[in-house]
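User: Can you fold this complex?
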Amino acid sequence: MDAREKTNNRESGPDALDSVGYTQAKTIRLVDIGTPMDLELGGTVGPVDVEYETYGELSSRKDNAVFIAHALSGDAHVAGWDKDAKQTGRTWRQRKPGWWDTIVGPGKAIDTNRYFVICPNVLGSCYGTTGPASIDPRTGKPYGVSFPMVTVGDWVKLHARLLDALGIARVCAVVGGSLGGQQALEMALAFPERVERAVILASAARLSAQGLAFNAVGRYCILNDPKFAGGDYYETGGPDAGLAAARMLAHITYLSDEGMHEKFGRRLQTADGQKAGFGIEFAVESYLDYQGRAFVERFDANSYLYVTRAMDYYDAAAAWGGGNLVAACARAKGQFLVVSFDSDWLYPPGDCKELAMALARNGAPVTYANVPSRFGHDSFLVETQKVGRLLRSFLAH
Amino acid sequence: MSQPRADKDLLIDRALGKLPEGLFEARAKEIAEMLRLHGHAAAASPRPAGRWQEEIIAREIPLGSRVLDLGCGDGFLLERLIRERGVRVQGVEIDPEQVYSCVDRGVPVIQADLGTRLSWCPDKSYDVVVLEETLQTLHNPREMLEEMLRVGKRGIVSFPNFAHYRVVVDLVARSRMPVTDRLPYRWYDSANIHLLTLRDLLDWAETSRVRIVNGYVLADGSPRELRPDDDRVAEEVLVVVERT
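Assistant: Here's the predicted assembly.
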């Protein structure tokens, strides 16, 4: 799920008045090797380093923090232009700003003149936070699939440690879309006293069977690529074809039939017509091919396995309500904004609404809006005006 | 009826036959004008400034109570109640544009239609449930009235009275669905699919174990308390109800 590409100029580059400008990530050790962190599904992990970015100033009362949780393939680089992109080899960041640059910045919906914005990369991912590509101190080699299984619950516990380290007792808001929305929900349930508001976009209390199925096929592509080599591929070159295929499939699930029809139709990529072969001919094929290849450049296949599994396993009702979502939501204390998008088939409106209603049933002040959009699951990134208006107003009250 | 009448039409006599003595005389000129405009929409009557119901609702809502507004529109009422009455509110509204307005005002709102039971609301979970100018737009108004009394300790219902003399005259004079300033839509673009009268509401209360705690009407452009003979003079009705 990439933000729309932007060119680097005065109007939309780092010098633009509404850009957070150049950004530099920070890394913090939140778990020491001597005192590893217990994990929800058993086992421990340690040491853990977390890469995170912040924008804006933390107020003296430390009451203006907005915690942003990223989605499946996201990272801590929410907004602005990565100053270290070249040194860290994240060269794709030279071409475009952070993934939610349209929403986060001075004067934008999440106004960095007003709020102190924090976003960490999740445990098990591949953008500076400890994950399967990190060195296992016991072996001196990358963890690969010996990395322990991590969950959304583990992420949120780690995020609470980050807030502790920053001296923030309570966030003004936790905000996330998709898998990030599930982190927002989990933070509101696991640490109700620490969450004043939660914003859950294109997300639900659990993934549907259809969503599980999409993830299963994605992992199948990776696991059955001969180059996967049991996850121990860091020396030999990874399962690029498998990871690209997983990404291509995922991209289909982020769009909608209507949106694809509008964007590509049956258009051919080149003017010389159909070639009676198996190359890339249709515009939609070319788009997916590009997305697949671009993703291989920037994502680790093992991380894809771990993060999709965390997404599969997340079930707020099971974790906090013995299977009953209303009982689980009784823990919540803050205000909620739940937004669905009518063409989203990954987290369909019905599932989002079910969560909103479970929160409302417990008497929590809830706003639920179903935004009409043809951009499918990606709407939460693309419908900047509508999402921005909801976010801006919700945060202000 | 001693004064000269502008029209002796038998139908009108019948239609207005139930008007209390003296009422017709006071309105003879206006009715004559409506009849003269035969075939056209009736002229507007004087309108009170703002939405009269909201003054009364604000008075009827206990300080610090929990309020659910079904069909809360742009959230104007709830924002006022938060500000003036320190209440905890929840709105429900189907129109997405209105939902955005609610969020702009800081009013929590669930985008949902009122066609089904409020399964997400436990019994008696709100002190007051408001159905302001919403009842007549619902597919199952009776079911929603029942839901209102299930989830709320009290209900507040307001609606345009279809038996108001101007509505009746307009219907009789034009033989078309009445178009007045309180019912400004044509039959085909009106959201009002279950129009009712003051008497209908009172009948429902009587047969549904419902007590009218307080009643108000808008009559001749001014709000006042409900009286026994308001059937034809109430333009709009607002009642506070409780289950007996």
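Chain B touches chain A at residues 66, 88-90, 96, 99-100, 102-106, 108-112, 119-122, 125 (CB under 8 Å). The helical segments of chain B are 10-16, 23-36, 52-60, 76-85, 96-104, 141-151, 165-174, 198-207.
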